[in-house]
Protein 1
Amino acid sequence: MEQAFVYIIFSAKWDQYYIGLTENIEARVEYHNAGKNKSTRGGAPWKLVYREEFDDATSARKREYQIKAKKRRKYIQWFLSANRYGAFREAMTYHVNL
């Protein structure tokens, strides 16, 4: 895996966020919306609300775990809000060199 993304999707139906890692954002969101993921099945439609791009899967996985470690709803909402008005906007790519 060369390029990797950490992403956050949101289900209005469940009022819930899901954090994941993928090589292909568009295909992965479609996968979630098709009900092919056990954890997100039934919550469709899922909307991509955040993504971060990495040069390699190892760096992306570290970031995914960092976000998941603080997987409280208030933290995720703060994180999305802070990033929406910071250096990047909702669902736009932020390139990280770790």
Protein 2
Amino acid sequence: MRQTLTRKLAAELKERIAAMPHGARLASTRALARERNLSRNTVISAYEQLASEGLVESRRGSGTRVLRRTTPRDWRDLLAGSRFPARQAPLPNPDGAPLFLFTSLAPNTR
């Protein structure tokens, strides 16, 4: 299977992050894109992938920093940061994984 540039970059960054201390700052998306001769969108997508895995946290104007998690992220944590509201479905799921009902397609602006 062919890997995209985004996945390759994310995998490489993941290895680097493993050796970095909590709170360490990653290069800005512009600087990394320029250094690697990549599109800034590719770098942003890689950082978003790492953020979705709970490895980094990005804040506009403050940069992207390494997070340390000792336990896997709970589904409620993932949904709390979502722009789209969702709740666990009150339905049994045979494989035991939680089911989610998205209440609307409008972003959560709260």
